[in-house]
Each structure stands twice: as structure tokens, then as C-alpha cells.
DNA sequence: CGCAATATTGACCATCATCAATTGGCGTGG
DNA sequence: CCACGCCAATTGATGATGGTCAATATTGCG
């Protein structure tokens, strides 16, 4: 579980993301690479952090796929976000002591934990990096807002189309899309929990999207056959992902 | 529209909020009070910032009531958050160039606009203030998450009860609640747009909540008759508001 | 007093949830 | 290599929650 190594080569995805926001100096890059880390390789369906915890470190996803979620008293679940390599899904724990939701790996993944104290020193020493990390949490919030619109106002059909658009764009941004295809290992139950739907209904809408030849879904693989029809179906506009530089 | 005055006494609510997160030194307090501002007094139902804008300043609410929202192509609306005095609803614009949603006053209000450049200088000079402002945007995101759960998984009845709980707690936190009563000037259409419901259905559920003598609602006035039953109905737990110090 | 916005009501209906099987895919142990 | 078992996907039947439409009643306010 513990890994004494430092300066693993795996800040690359995170650095890529930060560089997409603006220039990163050699000094800043070095400061990030020097962050102490603890490596972990969760199996699929394993909680990384739980609601109620007061973690002392943040989790950076190196490989795999993760999500954040909340459980209701009766056991129903709402998935709040999906996370790809380069994301720090619980960066908010740096400033919010107690987790108001849980973080889980959805696939066997590789993550590193970075102590809050180290991040705090980093941010206090490098205001530009602070801005970038802050910005990252703000994009996070922007995605929440877009999901709220879907959950509150869009039909099941549009919601699913929209989520697929978002995932394709996010995967593409981290080099995990081959053309119009992504490796998406989500069960229909997981999709339903993200979309505020029942898995039965998700199943039916997926059949419709396939029948209309807008997408193709085989085991763990989503292929977009007609991007324009998918974005139209989901009323998708990627502005909310704020991929352009700050 | 423009007001050359500086050091208005109205940073009090913001300073109160920051102080609730941790100690604020005299120097930091002075730095905030010295921020240049432009005062504005929007009428009710007036947009302060619009989706697509690239604002060069942030908006601090001094008095009144505001909300953020998104419009769908067909004109339907999803309200994303409500804001009370002391809030900086569009602080995210400091790091996200283009607004992905709009900000509007719901009542005649008083707000000030603070230039991004001034805030940026402030944060780069005062890492502790940065942490606090960052934290504020993180609480914002935490509220989005809780709303997502409501929109995705809770019944109309629970959603409304939950929102009322949240509003009472938020109003109380800024001294705008008298005992169990708040001045809540929201139309049923506005409630519906926040809750992802139709106004007709909101009306019916409100009647139920009144009939059960859990709340009382007269014009612009919400009184909670039985807090325990309201929180139970809404499955409300205020942890997500992160009111306790960092 | 009269307008305009808001709230309320009733009738009807669509979307989506629930429940309960059944089918299919796939890894594993014999 | 094949049968078993498990999980995920699929299907059908039924019904509830909440939407839509349209009319009416209220309320605030100039």
C-alpha cells in the first residue's frame, strides 16, 4: 500500500491539465513532482474515501475510472461525477474538513494520495498553481451545474445523450478516445445512478439510441456513430467544460 | 451606476462569513475593505451577469436575494442556487473566463462589483484569504451536489422540504431569520424552476405541507411550524453546508 | 377600482418507476 | 471442454408521480 518512491512519472496527466490552463514554469513543475505520495491500486467498486471521513490527503487518479456519489437513507444512490486520470476528485477536502460524499473507483485503478499539508505548502508558495488548482475545482462545479440542468429539466433520452457527449469529450481531452470510440465500462445501474433514472429505463433508452443508429454499445465500449445527432439529442454544448485556457 | 466611494461599510457580511471560517487579521480585513467597488441596485428580476459574458469583475451581494440559473433551448429554466447577502455568486468568473450560466436578482437588491484584477492581487498577496475564498466556492459546489441528489433521487415532497430547510439555515446564518420564520419572496414558478418541478405540482405539495401543519406560507413569508418534521420530510442534514469552521 | 401577476383547481395524460421473470455473457472449477 | 453460477442486460406488465392544459380565483398594487 505504501510506496516510498517520490517523483513518479505519473504527474504527467495532471501537469498536462494544468498546462492546458496556462504556462507552468520548471520550478512549479518540479514543486509538483516533489509532492510526497502514497500509491494505491484499488480494485473496481472500492471506496477510496467515504462520506463523513475527515481525510488528511487528496486523491489523484493516475489510471482507471472513479466516481463520487451520495447514498440516501433508503439505499438509493446518486452519482455526482465521473473522474479520469489527471483528476483530483476530492481536492475540496483540502478546505472542507468533512467529506459530504464518497469517492470510489469504478474500475481497477491506480491512484496516489497527497498529504493536505504538502498541497497547502505548495499553494502558499505558488499562487499561480493555486489559481490553477482552484480553477480545477471550479470546473468541477460547472459540471455539477450542467448535471443539475439535466437532472431537473431534461428527458431521460436527452440526459443519456448528454452524458455520453460529456464522457467522449472528457476522454478525448486526456487521450483516452480513439476517434469516435471510448472504453466505457459502466453498467446500466451505474448509468442510472448518475442520471437519476431506473436501470430499466436506461436500458430502454439505450435501445432507442442504438436503434436510431446514433451510438453503438458493446461490452465496455461506446462508439458514437453520429456525433451531430448525439449532441442534438443531448442539447450538448461543451462550453461548460471550460476546456479552453482560463 | 458608478460609485466612487471606497471602504463602504458593507463588507461586514462577507467578513462575517470569512471569520466563520477562521481568524482574519486586521491587515487582511483592511485589504478587503480597500477593494475598489462599483455599486449597483438592481430591481427584482434583473440579470446581473449573463451566460456567455466574460465579466471582468465579481459580484458581491450586500442586500437582497439573488439566484443563478440556466435556460434550455425551449425556454425552460433551471435555477442552480440562491444567494443571500455576503455571497459572491460569480466568484468562479475569476478563473473561468466565460459564464456558463446567468446571475439574477430576484428582489430589489444592493450589490457591488469588484474588479478581477483587484481580487487577484488580493489573493496573491494573502494566501490565507485565498484559502477562504476558495473554500467559499467549494461550499458552493457542495450545495450543488446536495441539489443533484434532490433533483435526481428525491420526491417532490422531499425536495421542497429540503429546500426550505436549507433556506432557513442559510438565512439564519446571516441573521435574516426571526426564530422559525424567514422572509421568502419566491413565487411558485421560481420554486419550481429550482426544484425541477412544474409550478402546478409545487402548488399542490405546498398545500400538503401546509395541511400537515409542518409549515405556514403567506405572502413572502415562510414559517416552519415543526422543524423536526420538516427535516424528516426533506431528509435534511446540514453537514453539506459546511457551516463549521474549516 | 381594475389590471396584472400569482395562486389554485380539475381533467387528462406522459414519462418513468417498480416488480418480476427471463435471457445472455463469461469466468471458474471440475 | 463444459456445466454451473453470477452479474448484467432485457422484457413485459402495471401503476405512480408529476407534467400539461385550460380555466378560475386571489392578491398585490397603482
Please mark out the parts of chain A with pLDDT under 50 across 5 or more consecutive residues, or reply none.
1-7
Look at the structure and name the CATH superfamily of the largest domain in chain A.
Jelly Rolls
> Cα-atom Rg of chain A, whole angstroms?
18 Å
Number of domains of chain A: 2
Q: Biggest sheet of chain A, strands in spatial order?
A: 2-6-4-5
Biggest interface and which pair forms it? A-B, 46 and 46 residues
**Helix run count of chain A:** 8
- Secondary-structure-derived class of chain A: alpha+beta
Q: Helices and strands of chain A, in N-to-C order?
A: HHEEEEEEEHHHEEHHEEH
State the shape of chain A.
globular
Oligomer: homodimer
Instruction: Give the integer mean of the pLDDT values of chain A.
Output: 95
Count the E strands of chain A. 11
Task: Indicate the percent of residues in helices of chain A.
Answer: 40-55%
Query: End-to-end distance of chain A, in Å?
Result: 37 Å
Under the CATH scheme, which class of the largest domain in chain A? Mainly Beta
Give a quick summary of the entry.
With 246 residues, chain A is of the alpha+beta class. Chain A has eight helices and eleven strands. A four-stranded antiparallel sheet of chain A has the order 2-6-4-5. Chain A has a four-stranded antiparallel sheet with strand order 8-9-11-10.
Amino acid at each position: 500500500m505504501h510506496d516510498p518512491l517520490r517523483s513518479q512519472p505519473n504527474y504527467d496527466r495532471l501537469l498536462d491539465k494544468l498546462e492546458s490552463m496556462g504556462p507552468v514554469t520548471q520550478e512549479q513543475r518540479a514543486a509538483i513532482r516533489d509532492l510526497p505520495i502514497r500509491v494505491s491500486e484499488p480494485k473496481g467498486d472500492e471506496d477510496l474515501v467515504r462520506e463523513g471521513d475527515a481525510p488528511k490527503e487528496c486523491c489523484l487518479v493516475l489510471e482507471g475510472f472513479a466516481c463520487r456519489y451520495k447514498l440516501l437513507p433508503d439505499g438509493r444512490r446518486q452519482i455526482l461525477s465521473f473522474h479520469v486520470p489527471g483528476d483530483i476528485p476530492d481536492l475540496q477536502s483540502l478546505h472542507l474538513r468533512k467529506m459530504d460524499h464518497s469517492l470510489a473507483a469504478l474500475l481497477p485503478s491506480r491512484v496516489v494520495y497527497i498529504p493536505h499539508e504538502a498541497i497547502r505548502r505548495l499553494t502558499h508558495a505558488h499562487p499561480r498553481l493555486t489559481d490553477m488548482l482552484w480553477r480545477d475545482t471550479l470546473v468541477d462545479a460547472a459540471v455539477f451545474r450542467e448535471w443539475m440542468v439535466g437532472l431537473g429539466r431534461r428527458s431521460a433520452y436527452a440526459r443519456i445523450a448528454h452524458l455520453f457527449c460529456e464522457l467522449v469529450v472528457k476522454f478525448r481531452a486526456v487521450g483516452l478516445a480513439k476517434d469516435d470510440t471510448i472504453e466505457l465500462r459502466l453498467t446500466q445501474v451505474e448509468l442510472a445512478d448518475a442520471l437519476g433514472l431506473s436501470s430499466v429505463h436506461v436500458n430502454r433508452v439505450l435501445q432507442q439510441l442504438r436503434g436510431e443508429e446514433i451510438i453503438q454499445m458493446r461490452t465496455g465500449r461506446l462508439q458514437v456513430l453520429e456525433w451531430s445527432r448525439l449532441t442534438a439529442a443531448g442539447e450538448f454544448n461543451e462550453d461548460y467544460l471550460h476546456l479552453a485556457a482560463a
